[in-house]
Write a structure and sequence with these properties.
Elements lengths: L3 E5 L4 H5 L12 H8 L1 H5 L4 E6 L3 H9 L6 E2 L16 H7 L5 H4 L13 H22 L3 E6 L1 H11 L17 E7 L2 E9 L13
Parallel strand pairs: 1-4, 2-3, 2-4
Antiparallel strand pairs: 1-5, 5-6
């Protein structure tokens, strides 16, 4: 396998406002669509043999506009289930829990359909994705594998790829509509690029979901 290409979806209304977004299936904003189209030249010189995409509209639309055809919808790439914090910003949570941190405290329970996930829960999903990637690598040869998904899921996945705990995903910020890459150096897993984007499409990294 070549490298693992991580793509966070383009901007949505809630990623722009900082609202936690997991199952709420928001479309891309106009800016988000421009960010997704701007991925085309960034990916032009890559041999992407396989694309896996989150089931969400925002991720699938990003893959489409980026020119990643035949993307395989992969349920394990869905965003961290924020439970009772869906649609709420960190600033709002801090009004009642001033020391709350997603990476160590998890989320308040939500509905039975969306009870929320712990860092360990998300880490287990990321491990499943990485196991599938390693299996697929035997078929794609030197080709890259692209994952089009969400901020916190991809941060956890990056941590697990590097052999870190799920909570250490806090060390990696991922911007909307940006490309990051995971590879190896001397046989060891490394981050080879982080938050690559065209200047006119780049937005801030402090956005949820």
């Amino acid at each position: 396998m070549g490298e693992l290409i991580l793509i966070r979806h383009g901007e949505t209304e809630w990623s722009r406002s900082g609202q936690h977004t997991s199952w709420t299936d928001l479309p891309l904003t106009d800016t988000g669509e421009r960010q997704a189209r701007a991925l085309v030249p960034l990916l032009a010189d890559r041999h992407i043999a396989l694309t896996l995409v989150s089931p969400s509209v925002r991720a699938r639309r990003t893959a489409e506009l980026a020119g990643l055809t035949a993307a395989r919808v992969t349920p394990e790439l869905r965003e961290w289930d924020y439970g009772g914090y869906e649609g709420i910003t960190t600033r709002e949570i801090h009004r009642t829990r001033p020391f709350w941190n997603l990476w160590t405290d998890g989320v308040d329970p939500g509905t039975p359909e969306h009870p929320g996930e712990s860092p360990a829960d998300v880490g287990a999903r990321a491990d499943t994705v990485l196991a599938g990637v390693r299996s697929a690598a035997e078929r794609v040869g030197d080709g890259d594998i692209a994952l089009v998904a969400h901020s916190h899921l991809l941060r956890v996945l990056t941590a697990r790829y590097l052999g870190l705990t799920p909570a250490e995903g806090r060390l990696f910020q991922l911007a909307t509509g940006a490309v990051s890459r995971l590879g190896t150096e001397h046989g060891q897993p490394v981050v080879t690029a982080l938050n690559v984007a065209l200047p006119e499409s780049f937005r801030g990294v402090n956005q949820e979901g």
